[in-house]
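Morning. Coffee machine broken again, so started the prediction first thing and wrote up yesterday's gels while waiting. Chain of 245 residues, entered below exactly as on the submission form.
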Amino acid sequence: MRFDGQTVLILGGSAGIGLAAARLFHAEGARLAITGRNPASLQAVADELGALTLCSDMGVVVDSAVAVAAAGEGLGAIDILFVNAGVGGFAAVPDVTEEFWDGIHDVNLRGAFFAIQAALPLMRDGGNIVITGSIGSVMALSGNVAYAAAKAGLRAVARILAKELLPRRIRVNMISPGPTDTEIFKRGASEQEVADMRAMLSAAVPIGRMGTSEEVARAALFLASSDAVFINGIDLYVDGGCVEL
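Came back before lunch.
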């Protein structure tokens, strides 16, 4: 029960890695506040975990500010902030439009930064921030320029936060998943398309398969826990060896 009695705010916790993390935090005694954009998914999480759920779009800065304030009012000071909400999209450099670029950066970089900024006054000294990045920020993948740039920017934010928050003893770390079997790549795809995509992504992983949401979430919980008390400012690749092998 590493998180017994602690308050955890998960930004983007109604599906995928965020939901897996919510279940793990709950199992270890945490009190949860969770944001997401889908009211039905949020209700399901509330019913399952007894979490305070808040409908919020991280691409809208005021939404995050309102949600963070509501979390503080409902549960008190925040011990752990898990910044997980994000959006993806592929386009080759000649095809990137301002609208496409802004749609990705408004959530993954701009929105994430201002959500963290809004949460800082509510965080306890000695707390933890974990941010979901991506190995795409350090690997040259064709068509990934907008997403990679946003996540690389978020990595810079994490490092500077880790430095600036030293006086408050708030540790800041990042997890960067590799190919992970979540709902994102399945949306709007046929069964055959999903199977083909899964095979392609699995072949790109040295371990020979995609990761699971829970495997990535467990890395986030490790960094947020006292087990990682001497770890600060890192980007932990949870990728089956994609970056290093």
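The chain has a mean pLDDT of 96. Going to sketch it on the whiteboard this afternoon.
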